[in-house]
Amino acid sequence: MSLSNSSRGPALSLVKEGMAAQPPHELDWSIYMARAQGGERQAYRRLLEEITPYLRSLAARCMQNRGDVEDAVQDSLLTVHAVRHTYDPTRPFGPWLVAIANRRIVDVLRRRGRVESRETPLDAEHETFAVHEANYHEAASEGRALRDAVESLPPGQREAIRLLKLNEMSLKEAAAVSGMSVAALKVATHRALKNLRKMLGREREKT
After folding, report:
1. Residue 105 in contact with residue 63, Cβ under 8 Å?
2. Do residues 128 and 57 make contact, with C-beta atoms less than 8 angstroms apart?
């Protein structure tokens, strides 16, 4: 999958589904997700722990900035959490996960483009897959840190993240559901993401 150059944002080169649709543990992940949909917390926790390094490898192919990579990983995990009920266990897990990762990577790249206020061509990095055994504890820690960080946000910021990032609503839809104005949602989301990055950054410094 790729997006052509646009005058509204940076030139993007994303993960092609044909190249990354079959992660090393796809069958296991499909089983974990099916069990998670049935309410098995341990299976869901194991799934998040295992897909984290894989999501990081996908983001690293499209980004050079480590902070952007981590933002894409965190946003992808939030989206997986929000839309896990939509996964069909009879279909391959890889393409479903890659599609989510691509959308979140695009979001991060567009945010980066707006910040830099210029178009920056982005070349795909070499494909790498992190060894699960070497990253197991790191992934588990990050998964817990992310959940705790979201829960610790002020109510307004937590609601903005839930509606806009987890439920993937538009600003208009989120405003109608929450009763907040579009402007207030934008501010709350900006502050929430800033706070999440700070909290998760402090967690990484401790390790």
Report:
1. yes
2. yes
